[in-house]
Amino acid sequence: MGLEAWYMDGSDEDQRKPHRLNPNQPVTLDELKKLGVFYWKLNADIYESDPELEKIRKDQGYSYMDIITIQRDSLPNYEEKLKMFYEEHLHLDDEIRYILDGQAYFDIRDKEDRWIRIAMEKGDLITLPAGIYHRFTLDETDYTKAMRLFVGEPVWKAYNRPADDFDIRHNYVASLQGSRERDRVGGPVRQPSLMGEQKGTVADFQTFAEVDKISFICKYRLIVIT
């Protein structure tokens, strides 16, 4: 079974509950990609020697790796930590998580600022783009074991909302506006400059989604295609 995601209700019940709307409103992988979220399904039983995982790490530049276990018996101040993880925040770098065992939820904001819940289970690898508002929680099983991946040295700093003044947030929002324009015109459009640190233009691609994916992977640095 592939990754499952849905729009959340507004209930204040336990964050570990599913919080589905009634009727349920599912979110597809294509819709997640438009928000910069990418997903792979891997065999977590062979994560130590998995050639597919190694290829992903090489292709994406994920040079750092560690493993964290989150459960009530092993994490001091468990309830307080879980509440901290659930604070809405963003990072200045992509967040990459690979679930090796157990289950968890990532919640992300869509283009209209609505919450989408992404259900993670064993074998799910996900990347959240820098600048996206999100939060994390376990489900009612209170257990997950996850691999954390990072490009270069890890930076774990989280910036709680509001954090709209960061350049990376501006760049992420700009990428969403570009995606809206593609949906509106129904075809490829020219990608605007996403960062002031480099000047140039981005050539048209066959589909705007290709530009979206490259810009997300490269953390919104302007790419000059010749």
Strands, helices and their partners?
Elements: E1 4-7, H1 29-34, E2 38-41, H2 51-60, E3 64-71, H3 78-85, E4 89-90, E5 95-109, E6 115-121, E7 124-128, E8 134-138, E9 143-150, E10 159-160, H4 167-185, H5 208-217
Antiparallel strand pairs: 1-6, 2-7, 3-9, 4-10, 5-6, 5-7, 5-8, 5-9
Helix pairs in contact: 4-5
Subcellular location: Cytoplasm; Nucleus; Cell membrane
Keywords: Amino-acid biosynthesis, Cell membrane, Cytoplasm, Dioxygenase, Iron, Membrane, Metal-binding, Methionine biosynthesis, Nickel, Nucleus, Oxidoreductase
Binding site for Ni(2+): 89, 91, 95, 134
Description:
This is Acireductone dioxygenase. Pathway: Amino-acid biosynthesis; L-methionine biosynthesis via salvage pathway; L-methionine from S-methyl-5-thio-alpha-D-ribose 1-phosphate: step 5/6. It is a peripheral membrane protein. With 226 residues, the chain is of the alpha+beta class. The chain is 23% helix and 27% strand. The chain contains five helices and ten strands; from the N terminus they run E-H-E-H-E-H-E-E-E-E-E-E-E-H-H. Helix 4 (167-185) runs antiparallel to helix 5.
Number of strands: 10
Structural class by SSE content: alpha+beta
Give the ordered list of helices and strands.
EHEHEHEEEEEEEHH
Shape: globular
Report how far the terminal alpha carbons are from each other: 40 Å
- Helical fraction equals 10-25%
Mean pLDDT: 84
- What is the C-alpha radius of gyration, as a whole number of Å? 18 Å
Number of helices: 5
Largest beta sheet, briefly? Answer: 8 strands, antiparallel
Strand content: 25-35%
Q: Would you identify the regions where 5 or more consecutive residues have pLDDT less than 50?
A: 188-226
